[in-house]
Amino acid sequence: MFKRKFDKYWNFETSDTKEFTHCYHMYPAMMIPQVARKLIADNKPKHCNILLDPYMGSGTSLVEANILGINAIGTDINPLARLMSKVKTTHYDLSEISYWYSEICMAFTFYSPADVKDTNFERVSNYAFWYSEDSLYRLTFITQLINERVPYEYQDFFRVALSETVREVSFTRNGEFKRYRMKQDRIDVFKPDVFKNFEMKVIRNMKGLMAFNKYENGANSIICDFNSIYGIPNDIIADGSLDMVVTSPPYGDSHTTVAYGQFSRWANEWFGFANAKNLDNLLMGGQKSKECTFTTESIKPELEEIRVLDPKRYNEVLSFLDDYYFSIMNVAKKVRYGGRICYVVGNRRVKNVQINLDYFTAETFERFGFKHEITIVRDIPNKRMPAKNSPSNVVGAKVATMSNEFIVIMTKQ
After folding, report:
1. Which 3-state string (H, E, C) describes the chain?
2. How much is the pTM?
3. What is the pLDDT of residues 326-344, one digit of tens each?
């Protein structure tokens, strides 16, 4: 089987995970920057010019590659992830950002609900259930200011701050990535300061931008929306051209693991992004496969055990693994000989059976011409995911989330 090495150095328990533009926006199950940084620094092949993250999420690997002077390509079918990653990898002119921030703040001082031009909130599902009328009007006023007063090239910087505000001033419960409403007694006393919340986000992000701009070195990132399950366009990445892949793929389908779609729905609906309501169905494993292509020996006994316990869950797991297999196949084609892949994965439990996704990852890449170097095991005390989740989608029925990550490192032969 594929060798694992337990290494507490990789825990980074006391590290500042909010450095540079990593502070910009909360996102489920974020890879901490120190992991991406060390993976790139320690494993980049000679003459490393292009790095890919095929599940870029919040853009951690892209930011770290750019800081180290490496161009990066990232893709994600989640519009919020693309917005975040674009903004986090852009060296905005801080003086311009500061000026337009002061203009927005000035407008806040003269705010009146009568100034809000668009009071049609139908794009937001059950908007009266999730927001007070005052919050809806103030959020709309901020949107209006960004669209009408801020030059186009700086608008997305402010939209990232607004995205977090949209979620935080809603009636969603704290500490949840899924959409659970506060109890009524909490709602009765919940009076968020919408403008202040937005201002604090912008100030925080400006500090991160200042630090990031010190590393402006000509490296840049390209943000894409292709789905690696179905292929990687040759006009974006030619076969055999990638030097390195650093990524953290989903550990399972979004419905039963980390709820990326539900978390992102607040912003995706607010901004009118496509597929806001059905994103989880489009993510890896979101559609049930009628027939699976992959074969595996590394996790065959575990899959059989799940099949006996619960055929429905077994089919859901197979659907995810089939999508993951195709994604790996398509990524593998793009990596040059001597290129490296670093996949940070988690081994989730289904019906209390652990699925060793690190073994499956290494086994699948091996099928496509890669040699396994090592799998590093780290504790995840600072992982940006709940201490417990609700895989059954039953409110109150929770289990502990995983406490380790497995970093699979392989070389194209």
Report:
1. CCCEEECHHHHCCCCCCCCHHHHCCCCCCCCCHHHHHHHHHHHCCCCCCEEEECCCCCCHHHHHHHHCCCEEEEECCCHHHHHHHHHHCCCCCHHHHHHHHHHHHHHHHCCCHHHCCCCCCCCCCCHHHHCCHHHHHHHHHHHHHHHHHCCHHHHHHHHHHHHHHHHHCCCECCCCCCCCECCHHHHHHCCCCHHHHHHHHHHHHHHHHHHHHCCCCCCCEEEECCCCCCCCCCCCCCCCCEEEEEECCCCCCCCCCCCHHHHHHHHHHHCCCCCCCCHHHHCCCCCCCCCCCCCCCCCHHHHHHHHHHCHHHHHHHHHHHHHHHHHHHHHHHHEEEEEEEEEEECCCEECCEECCHHHHHHHHHHHCCEEEEEEEEEECCCCCCCCEECCCCCCCCCEECCCEEEEEEEEEC
2. 0.93
3. 999 999 999 999 999 999 9
